[in-house]
């Protein structure tokens, strides 16, 4: 029996998920010959756990979930420390940095993303870091622990930047976060919700919002950061200004890149070249563009949870099971200094930017009955399309049960629920677990009362 050859470029969450699902779904191991190529040296590394490792919750080495031999023993040609230098779509092979050509019947591009480096002077100085892979984490941890590291500047007030800022502060390092937007976490929160996060962190972290870093200064090692007319002395800088799709190899091969700088794919996650989609080349994860389920516009969804669903689509199609990827809502949850922050769908600002008229309801309540000693406050903001009153976005902040509610609201947006549906449906109640009328109900009622 002739084996079909599947080559996967990239060994982050997206590439590993496809590999795992193919191994589970094969009728017989002899039917598919799988090669995975990654430039990193470890097998499977969970980069999303790096900020907590910096904070001392566990070691960076604990984030190595599987060594290469775990997959090699399963019959996979698992190549680490190897980089793909080019893709030949016409002749169906990839060339690697050793000069070898590896042929394929099916190609999966999972090249991920790379940190955005602001176009300013000084980003190449010693003491300037990004935080994406294992090596980044180890270098940054060593700098944090070094004698004489007393001050840090984080450029970017997104999830990774804030989690790292908390880790720095916990280490006793005076930390300043500079965010170009007027508020923190601009991709997932509106300004009013972001202010709650800022208030929680302001005792430990200094914030400069709505301003750009114009330069990083120093001779060989970083010494200061320039923000407007202010010079901030610092011993280290973390560049955390977002991620960009890593599409260089795909672009050089002639694969179409879209308006959000990601690989263009169809519903089956096949890539596009010229006027057609290629039947044997797929792409997924941080490197592709997706369609937003609310705005119907291209966007990026650089989440491990997104990659897993896309991996199911790709692996199903490779295994002969027709599958497609729906427009996405990108439910997001994160933990920052004891807070759980969640978001799904569009923010008010995104809705307004796309011309969507909205009704908004915000409520604050306890997570459990008010007499229960372990109750926590929870703040909810729900966003509805004005004319239909359909839910199109939600934001939550608490110290517990945020992820559960975000998952519930994600299903609700997919199902097209309205404000009325939210407050008229049955909900479970137990005083040690819930309020009899949930904060989501209050937010929906407030939104509906808006004219």
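^ Assign residues to that structure.
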């Amino acid at each position: 029996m002739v084996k079909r050859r599947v080559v996967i470029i990239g060994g982050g969450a997206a590439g590993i998920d496809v590999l795992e699902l193919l191994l589970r779904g094969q009728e017989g191991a002899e039917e598919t010959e799988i090669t995975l190529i990654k430039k990193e040296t470890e097998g499977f590394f969970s980069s999303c756990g790096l900020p907590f490792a910096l904070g001392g919750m566990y070691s960076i080495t604990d984030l190595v979930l599987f060594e290469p031999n775990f997959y090699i023993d399963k019959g996979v040609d698992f190549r680490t420390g190897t980089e793909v230098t080019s893709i030949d779509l016409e002749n169906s092979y990839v060339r690697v940095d050793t000069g070898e050509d590896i042929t394929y019947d099916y190609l999966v591009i999972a090249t991920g993303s790379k940190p955005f480096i602001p176009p300013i002077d000084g980003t190449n100085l010693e003491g300037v870091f990004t935080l994406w892979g294992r090596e980044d984490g180890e270098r940054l941890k060593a700098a944090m622990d070094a004698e004489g590291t007393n001050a840090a500047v984080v450029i970017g007030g997104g999830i990774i930047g804030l989690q790292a800022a908390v880790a720095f502060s916990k280490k006793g390092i005076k930390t300043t976060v500079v965010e170009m937007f007027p508020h923190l976490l601009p991709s997932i929160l509106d300004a009013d919700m972001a202010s709650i996060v800022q208030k929680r962190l302001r005792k430990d972290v200094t914030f400069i919002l709505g301003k750009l870093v114009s330069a990083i200064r120093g001779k060989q090692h970083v010494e200061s950061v320039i923000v407007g007319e202010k010079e901030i002395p610092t011993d280290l800088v973390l560049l955390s200004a977002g991620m960009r799709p890593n599409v260089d190899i795909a672009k050089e091969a002639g694969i179409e890149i879209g308006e959000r700088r990601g690989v263009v794919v169809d519903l089956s996650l096949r890539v596009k070249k010229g006027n057609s989609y290629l039947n044997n080349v797929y792409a997924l994860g941080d490197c592709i563009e997706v369609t937003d389920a609310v705005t119907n516009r291209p966007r990026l969804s650089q989440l491990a949870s997104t990659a897993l669903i896309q991996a199911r689509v790709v692996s199903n199609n490779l295994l002969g099971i027709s599958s497609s990827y729906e427009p996405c809502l990108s439910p997001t949850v994160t933990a920052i200094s004891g807070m759980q922050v969640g978001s799904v769908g569009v923010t008010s600002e995104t809705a307004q930017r796309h011309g969507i008229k909205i009704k908004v309801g915000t409520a604050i309540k306890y997570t459990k009955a008010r007499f229960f000693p372990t109750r926590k406050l929870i703040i909810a903001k729900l966003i509805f399309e004005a004319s239909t009153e359909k839910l199109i976005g939600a934001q939550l902040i608490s110290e517990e049960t945020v992820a559960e509610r975000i998952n519930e609201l994600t299903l609700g947006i997919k199902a097209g629920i309205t404000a009325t549906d939210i407050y008229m449906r049955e909900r479970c109640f137990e005083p040690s677990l819930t309020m009899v009328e949930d904060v989501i109900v209050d937010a929906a009622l407030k939104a509906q009362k808006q004219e």
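The radius of gyration is 23 Å.
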